[in-house]
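Aim 2, interim progress: modelling of the uridine-diphosphate-N-acetylglucosamine-bound target.
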Amino acid sequence: MSTPTIRITGGYPLTGTITASGAKNSVLKLMAAAILAPGSSHISNVPLISDVTLMAEVLEYLGASVVFGEHEVSIDTSGVQRHDAPYELVSRMRASTAVLGPLLGRFGQARVAMPGGCQIGARKIDQHLLGLEALGVEFETEHGYIEGTAAKGLRGATVVLDIPSVGATENLIMAAATARGTTRIENAAREPEIVDLAGFLTTMGAHIAGAGSPIVEIEGTDRLYPVAGHQTIGDRIEAGTYLAAGALLAGPLTVRGVDPAHLEAALRKLEEAGVEVSTGPCEVTVSRQRPLKPLTLQTQPHPGFPTDLQAQFMVLAALGGGSSLIIENLFENRFMTAFELMRMGADIRIEGHNAFVTGVPALSGAPVQAPDLRGGAALVIAGLAADGYTEVSAIEHIQRGYEGLVEKLQAVGAHIEQA
Ligand code: UD1
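Predicted structure of the complex, ligand included:
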């Protein structure tokens, strides 16, 4: 049996409204955080994507019961007895390492396989481990596993991160929630998903100040309680992907269900490219009357331009009239999409962290392969804008993070199908 592909006939305008699903990068951490409070926690606005299913598998393996409803999930963590996340699961999704902090917080013990995940660079977890060590955890690494034990329980401490790692900030906030005393994280990541996680933990009874700023303070508490209801924030990266598509195909295209404040850097770049952008309380509309202009952008931790939208914006640059420069500061292998775009006629030169893109008048449809999650989505929107027929393979990468991508794009006029 042949593996599924996404087939696109390019050049059709995109107009109408797409609703963004709940944020993948938020909900995975919320699900892991449920471990901290024995009992049943309930999360809504849950995207139907394979990474969520995989996180449910991780939680079930640990002993939790996970029940999905329509875009919602109930997680009963009363029965969690295991403290280990096996290689078979962690190797399929790096975000499984989000159970490290909550397992240490609840049991003082955790054993997690060294992560794999997206093929977008080395992706170390040294900052997670250094921070947790400061909270009193001793780590041993053997046979591909990291085993952490807090023999005397977790205690608050000041942690200064070398880089504002999203995953490290989240693991530290979760572990610190039940530590004795106060934890101060300096140079913390400021992503909206961290604010969402802090909100979830606060509903559990945690005391957290400063989430979304570079300094987060957590005053540990003895007991956390399950969350009766928490709505996941909208997915700013999914939204940004559709906005890039709308910008390419002229729009007007509206994306609902996302906070425009979470997309500020990306919206600024769309305007620089000559796209008209308007925002409402929970929506963004793009349209374009003029040719695309070239772009200069570099990926940065939030509130800078997100690395998760770099590949999609490279498609805009590929069709921009002139020379664009894209600098990838976060992940070394995140230019793999460029090589597929070149097969569609894009003019891109890669030198280390820099991509020099010279705009071409048109891309031409071709068979291409999704290199990773965001790169796969970028190839789909390149196909929408290209002349003729594009077939994207290895779409399991895209299914990790985009719920109903084909259906959502069909509904706004794209000629796209999964076969
Ligand atoms: C999260 C997101 C991912 C996004 C990334 C950056 C999830 C599930 N994934 O990944 O989509 O692209 O944030 O916005 O939320 N690093 C270290 N040591 C560490 C931790 C990170 O050197 O201990 C490096 C990484 O190799 C990378 C950079 O720091 O170069 C950023 O990583 P980090 O912010 O931790 O990203 P993730 O949490 O893995």
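The longest helix spans residues 50-62. Residues 25, 28, 95, 121-128, 163, 165-168, 189, 306-308, 330-331 surround uridine-diphosphate-N-acetylglucosamine (CB under 6 Å).
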